[in-house]
Amino acid sequence: xxxxxxxxxxxxxxxxxxxxxxxxxxxxxxxxxxxxxxxxxxxxxxxxxxxxxxxxxxxxxxxxxxxxxxxxxxxxxxxxxxxxxxxxxxxxxxxxxxxxxxxxxxxxxxxxxxxxxxxxxxxxxxxxxxxxxxxxxxxxxxxxxxxxxxxxxxxxxxxxxxxxxxxxxxxxxxxxxxxxxxxxxxxxxxxxxxxxxxxxxxxxxxxxxxxxxxxxxxxxxxxxxxxxxxxxxxxxxxxxxxxxxxxxxxxxxxxxxxxxxxxxxxxxxxxxxxxxxxxxxxxxxxxxxxxxxxxxxxxxxxxxxxxxxxxxxxxxxxxxxxxxxxxxxxxxxxxxxxxxxxxxxxxxxxxxxxxxxxxxxxxxxxxxxxxxxxxxxxxxxxxxxxxxxx
Length: 390
Description:
Layout: E1 8-10, H1 24-34, H2 38-51, H3 56-68, H4 72-85, H5 91-102, H6 106-112, H7 122-127, H8 133-137, E2 146-148, E3 152-159, E4 165-170, E5 175-180, E6 187-190, H9 191-197, E7 201-208, E8 214-227, E9 230-240, H10 246-249, E10 255-259, H11 261-264, E11 268-272, E12 277-281, H12 285-294, E13 304-306, E14 310-317, E15 323-327, E16 336-337, H13 340-346, E17 356-359, E18 365-368, E19 370-378, E20 381-389
Parallel strand pairs: 1-16, 5-10, 6-9
Antiparallel strand pairs: 1-15, 2-9, 3-4, 3-12, 4-5, 4-8, 6-10, 7-8, 8-9, 11-12, 13-14, 14-15, 14-19, 17-18, 19-20
């Protein structure tokens, strides 16, 4: 995904260890994983598996790292082996379901969750809330995210600041306004808008948003989403109150939805801020050639796909060691949002006298306390004196 400016936030990636009795080698691999050093962690787990092919914790470790890297064949192999080693463990089955979900193999994903109470499963609630069995099964006989249109589509921003807005059509209806947010997962509809359209519902979960706000997120599906010259058919969606942020984000326009990372990762996606447009290209050789020809000045930053949609890659804040940063285009009013522990470590001063309060995406108001980060980088991109907020 190409963009000329990004908003980033530290993402803590803590995954409980599945092994009770650990060797020092396994401790080392786990520490590397917790630090976000996934390549090195995979090397350690691979050595453990070479010594003992039935080492469940190491096998599972390789499976979850393969999922983080979207190497689906490897993820399936390791997670299926972990399931065979410990059939009673639910975490490998949940991650296998996520592996199928990311490949739009919804029926396989649902089958992997057979016998698991998805409403109470801790891993699903914390990291993979889009794994709703009834919703997945509703796509039987259909192709999720089926595109009708040309090789690419360009969608003009109707507004760029404080957040990009685009016009779309849902189920062939009238044009409505959505905002773009890589901090969001599936396409999301405002709850009232969804009721107006008669969108089917498949249960709900409690979602957590910026500032610790919470709101009920309902699961559903739509028949189509029209973006520019494209119509994308058969999409899973979420639903939550969004029209409440229209005043702060919409510039007088009513906000009826969000386009998030799950739609974007199906395509070669470019958020072109200078030209004020969203560009979606089909993933094929022709598109890759066209993208490369138009992007000679690009800076490539590898990232991992954590949870169900968090794009994370290595960056640096001030003079601290490199850390995994979460790329979030939906952060309003700041260029960077840091964990309080990082703010303290970096010696960053909070500007309490400049705090502002506004409506958040969850329930209630959100207070933002600004600060300045003198240097922040993501890959080879470095910016100075970036405004942040906590």
